[in-house]
Structure formats: structure tokens, C-alpha cells
Amino acid sequence: QYRSPEVLLGYHWGASSDLWSFVCLIFELLTGDYLFDPRDGKTYSKDDDHIAQIIELVGPFSRSMLKESFYTRDFFNSRGELQRILKLKPWGLKDVLTEKYKFNPTDATEIADFLTPMLQIQLELRADAGGMVNHPWLSDAVGLENVVLERPVGGSGEDIPGWSKEFDGLLQPGKMYYHHHNH
After folding, report:
1. Single pTM value for the model
2. How far, in Å, are 3, 51, 119 from residue 59 at the CA level?
3. Are the CB atoms for 70 and 10 separated by under 8 Å?
4. What number of CA atoms fall less than 13 Å from residue 26's CA on the CB side?
5. Closest CA to 129 of 9, 17, 11
6. 26, 31, 151, 159: which one has the fewest Cβ atoms less than 10 Å from its Cβ?
7. Contact 158, 124 (CB under 8 A)
8. DSSP result, 41-105
């Protein structure tokens, strides 16, 4: 339920993969349900279902990502369509929150606005946690009253070593690094 698209598809990954899982957890804490709850079907696998659910929620995978992923051919045809699940029903996060979970529209909008930047399929574009701390949805969160990080809300973490590709370079002196342990 928590695996990111890049892990499912065998694309490169990095620290931003954790942000995907983090969003799944936040959604679960808010609703009591998994954000993605893939299952095996008669004609498709659990991973097929997982990828289909991701596309329904956040939209299609980019051509370049499909081209560079190790398992693309297991799931997609040459036209970039899913091989085994043909009917997709797009259902965005805000609508899921209001229609299925009866959140009021204001809350749903703010929550979706908070989570969506971290749910970018293209992991290079995924927002980093440091910037998201400054998001209005967390403005009255206990313990965060005086926490301001000098990072833009919704900005990508591409300047963080190891963000979208596992970090294997030498650390530069004078920079602060967060240690990320491989799963």
C-alpha cells in the first residue's frame, strides 16, 4: 500500500520515495482507510491494480519514466497503456475526501493541497518535507508554532543529495545532510 510508483516500476529512486509513503500514512490517519489498497483480480495482479489506482488518483506516468523503468513492459503496452486494466476512473484526492469521506470542501481542499505536491509521480518534482512544514494546513499544528524552514512550500527537493537517485557521491564539506537508510 505504501510503495511508490518508482519502486513498483523499477525506476531510480531516492529519499523522495519516502514522501510518497508518508502521504499514504497521513491519508490513512485522516480517513482510517489506505490511500491505495491494491488487490489481485482474476485477470490482473496486485501490482497492476496498484499502478491503476495511482493513475486514477494522480494521472498518467510520463513517457520518459516508462521508457527508463525496468518493469514497464510487465504492466504497459507500447502505447503506454496498462495491459490488463483497461477502464480507469479518474478520481482526484479532493473529490475522494469530499465524496467518499464527507470532509467539508474547505478542509478537503486544504488537505489535498498539502498532500498533492508530495504525490507527484515524477519523483524529481516531488515536494520535500522541509518545505511542506510551512504549509498553511500545518499552521496551527501543536509543536510547529515556531518552526520555519527556509524552503518553499511545495518546492521540489532536487537540491537535496539522494533526493531522486540514491546518493553515492562524496559528501561536500560544510553542507548538512540527513542520513537516509536504504529500505
Report:
1. 0.87
2. 17, 10, 10
3. yes
4. 18
5. 17
6. 159
7. yes
8. -SSS-HHHHHHHHHHHHH-PPPHHHHHH-TTHHHHB-TTS-BSS--------HHHIIIIIT---H
